[in-house]
Design a protein that fits this description.
It is a single chain. The protein is of the alpha+beta class and about 325 residues long. The chain has one domain: 2-Layer Sandwich (BirA Bifunctional Protein, domain 2), CATH 3.30.930. Helices cover about 35% and strands about 20% of the residues. The chain contains 9 helices and 12 strands. Strands 1, 5, 6, 7, 8, 9, 10, 11 and 12 form a 9-stranded mixed beta sheet that branches.
Length: about 325
């Protein structure tokens, strides 16, 4: 067994807290498929696949293990389910190490009629309640993506040249072949900014570059920004939320751009989720959604950088 018994008890208490919190607010717990006929097109996420060996009438043989329950949850929203959440296991291939396990626990929830700002406030409240289980509380700092770079590195990430971004990484040794502007920005967050977040602080970063919109709406402006937030507890990124895109035509275009990027990297090309696009065309209600990494939350609560310290058995011992 990897994790001490106290860590397993804390995990159980956190899961119970989540369920009680949402039950008190009439947010419905649902269970959606772990195996899907479609995969995640996001270029930086690799899905596990498996092959169904039964009769062909049952559907496509190639199946993808979910990297999050986002797509089926949105299909439920389009069907009129209303506020809902899922607490369960998700899978990402190739992600194994000190802070990563290919199989991990995700809490994902959606609020109808909310934007990302209101949802960020609820995510902060939920994390604070989890901290209360260990008699802790965190300060909260909310700032924009631009303000994060300006305060931490002294330049505007929307205007800085790619060469300036590379230079800001300093002596960090990296193979930059194939990296694009957003990759350099991500590296600056993970290697230059995130390590300086205080351990007793919740940091909420709002309004990301439009090129990093994923499934979020883009707000026009100079520059346009994605209505997206990320939430950090100490140095751990634990949640990523969106004011959700509703336009199926734009969503299809984003999926196709993802596939072009993946093809350029000689990566697997997952099937696009046509059922999600059909549900969006049917009418996805205005909503905001967020995914919270439960293992990362537990790591931050217990002050460890090893995901194995919060798992009964990590990937090496599964």
């Amino acid at each position: 067994m990897n994790a001490p018994l106290d860590a397993l008890r804390l995990r159980a208490a956190v899961n119970a807290l989540f369920r009680l919190y949402f039950a008190e607010r009439d947010v419905l717990e649902v269970e959606t498929p772990i195996l899907s006929q479609a995969g995640n097109t996001e270029p930086n996420i690799e899905s596990f696949t498996t092959v169904f060996s039964g009769h062909a009438d049952a559907g496509t043989r190639m199946r993808w293990l979910r990297t999050s329950p986002e797509y089926p949850l949105k299909r439920l929203l389009a069907a009129g389910v209303g506020d809902c959440y899922e607490l369960g296991r998700v899978f990402r291939n190739g992600e194994a190490g000190g802070r990563h396990n290919p199989e991990f626990t995700l809490l994902e929830w959606y609020r109808v009629g909310w934007d990302h700002l209101r949802l960020a406030e609820e995510a902060v409240e939920l994390v604070q309640r989890a901290l209360g289980l260990i008699r802790k509380q965190a300060d909260v700092v909310s700032l924009s993506y631009r303000e994060l770079f300006q305060s931490g590195l002294g330049f505007d990430p929307f205007e800085a040249s790619e060469e300036a971004l590379r230079s800001a990484l300093g002596e960090l040794s990296l193979d930059g072949d194939g990296l694009e502007r957003d990759d350099w920005l991500d590296l600056l967050i993970t290697h230059r900014l995130q390590p300086h977040f205080p351990p007793d602080r919740i940091t909420v970063v709002l309004d990301w570059p439009a090129t990093q919109c994923a499934l979020a709406r883009i707000r026009p402006g100079q520059p346009p920004v994605a209505e997206r937030f990320e939430l950090y507890l100490g140095q751990h990124e634990i949640a990523n939320g969106y004011h959700e895109l509703l336009d199926p035509i734009e969503q299809r275009a984003r999926f196709q751009r993802d596939l072009v990027t993946r093809e350029g990297r000689i990566a697997h090309l997952p099937a696009v989720d046509e059922r999600l696009l059909a549900a969006m065309a049917q009418g996805l209600p205005a909503c905001a959604g967020v995914a919270l990494g439960v293992d990362r939350l537990l790591m931050a609560m217990l002050g460890t950088d090893r995901i194995a310290d919060v798992l009964p058995f990590d990937f090496a011992h599964a």
